[in-house]
Hints:
This protein is an alpha+beta fold. The chain contains four helices and 15 strands.
Amino acid sequence: MTQELFRQDAYLRETPAAVVAVGEQGILLDRTVFYPLWGGQAGDSGVLVLGDGSLVQVADTRKCKDAEGRPTAQIAHVPAPGQEALLGRLQPGTRVLARLDWERRHKLMRFHTTTHLLCHLVPQLVNGCSITPDYARLDFNMTDPLEKEALTQGIARLVSAGHVVEVGSISEEELDANPALVKSMSVQPPRGTGRVRTIRVGAPGAAIDYQPCGGTHVANTAEIGGVVVTKIEKKSATTRRVVLGFA
């Protein structure tokens, strides 16, 4: 099981780690700051720094899958092509420094937090999500039209208000008693540990958004900066897609 340091500290940019294995799915470490593709958020990229300063380029990060294709608790750091000589030096126990492409990760954090603001502005269930460094989108299960300028202004207002963003957790029993906390129709919170990670935007008792979420976020909405709605699409009779970009 990979220790997922990003769960509690999304601002941790690097960590010393030990290689567990190198296989077809990628490089497995005992601990990592790299977020794997999950819940619509893109996987991180960066480098693994070897003891002599050599750099193994990590192009993507994914959850490992078992023989039946189910995600496991291990995280695979997918190396960029053409690094066979360096990969041959990564044996179990080899010490490395796992270092994020921080600029890329911070863009993902800003966009992901903005999608939570959108969930406040458009209080409908979400049936699709994609968060990349270049854009983000949410697909809402609804038939009413949406106005691009009104949503852009709403996002700007919530960003400038400087709402605190905090990581928490609730028990699986608490989630079962409050099913409306889950706002996604396509992705369900991971279970099995007894606790479910949550993200709250806004002060306790006055949150503007509160829901289970495993992704990475900024600590305050003011850190999001300029984000605008670039497009609104009618994807089907019951789906409205909102696309976000940086201003």
